[in-house]
Design goal:
single chain; about 120 residues; alpha+beta; tt1808, chain A; 5-stranded mixed beta sheet; 9 strands; Nuclease_put_TT1808; nuclease; Putative restriction endonuclease
C-alpha cells in the first residue's frame, strides 16, 4: 500500500531506490511514494489509472508526490505508455506496441513490449 496525501494506492508494480527501501520496517504495511509505478488497466480501474479519462486521479496523485516514472499497460490494445515526471505533471515519453522499453529511473531495466503480452 502506497500512502499519499489524498489517497492510498496499490500499484500493480512499483520500485523504490535503495535509500528509501533501507528505511522500511519489518512489519510496515504502508509505504512512501515509489520512484517507479506501473498500472495494468482493467475495466474497474481504467478511469482512476489513466489521464486520458477526465477522472485520472491516480496519475495526478502519483505526479504530485514525485513518482518519477509511470507506466500504463493496456492489455486490450497491447500497448505500454511511459510517462516521465516534469515538474509536477507526467509527460508521455512514448507509447509502444513493439520494441524495447527502457526505464529512465531504474538503471538497466528494459523489457520487450511484445513479451509483456505473450501467454
Amino acid at each position: 500500500m502506497v500512502r499519499l496525501t489524498r489517497n492510498d494506492y496499490e500499484p500493480d508494480i512499483c520500485f523504490w531506490d535503495a535509500e528509501t527501501a533501507a528505511k522500511f520496517g519489518q512489519k510496515q504495511s504502508a509505504f512512501p511514494p515509489p520512484c517507479f509505478a506501473v498500472e495494468i488497466l482493467s475495466e474497474s480501474t481504467r478511469e482512476r489509472d489513466w489521464i486520458a479519462s477526465p477522472v485520472g486521479i491516480k496519475m495526478t496523485d502519483y505526479a504530485l508526490h514525485g513518482i518519477r516514472e509511470y507506466r500504463i499497460v493496456d492489455t486490450e490494445h497491447e500497448t505500454i505508455e511511459q510517462y516521465l515526471l516534469e515538474g509536477n505533471i507526467f509527460v508521455l515519453a512514448q507509447k509502444l506496441k513493439d520494441g524495447t522499453l527502457e526505464s529512465e529511473v531504474i538503471a538497466g531495466f528494459r523489457i520487450g513490449v511484445k513479451a509483456v503480452f505473450e501467454e
